[in-house]
Amino acid sequence: MSAFQFLVEVLKSGAVQGLGLDARPDAWEAKLGSGYVDDVRKGRMRRDYGLVELSFFKEGETWQCFEVSLQIHRLAAGIADIVPISLIEEYGKLESRIKFSDLQANATAEGLQVAQIGDRGRHLHSRFSVMESRVIVHVLETDSGDILRRGDVWSVSLARDFTERAAPVS
Length: 170
Description:
Elements: H1 3-13, H2 25-32, E1 37-41, E2 44-48, E3 52-59, E4 62-70, H3 85-91, H4 100-109, E5 114-117, E6 125-130, E7 135-140, E8 153-159, H5 162-166
Antiparallel strand pairs: 1-2, 2-3, 3-4, 4-8, 5-6, 6-7, 7-8
């Protein structure tokens, strides 16, 4: 398995190892471990596992997840411990870059609809939506650093406001 297979699973399921936007912080910790940093401010919390970032808002006494973001570009840095051990156990060592064209071809072969979001004024990334899983893929439009190239996946997002984010700019 690989980072590529991991992303294909996310595009198909709209979840990370079975967890999605309905999962609470304790469920994420049970699945991904305790190797994270929490940044809590004004009723919001960002939980950073390195590769996986989670955003929550507090509703009463309960934290509600409003975004799951996979920071694929961080794989290129080669930093140890950036990938939660449960992902390594399931998918193996994750490669440092993923070509969007390969991911798109595989998603299409799986019957998923991958559509470009017609953004204006976005010069660094283009965005693509997968309606079935409510996922947005951010793709580099320029080379970045020594490893990442134009056409590589930068990040993948699952968000409660998917409909607004996926709407093309008119």
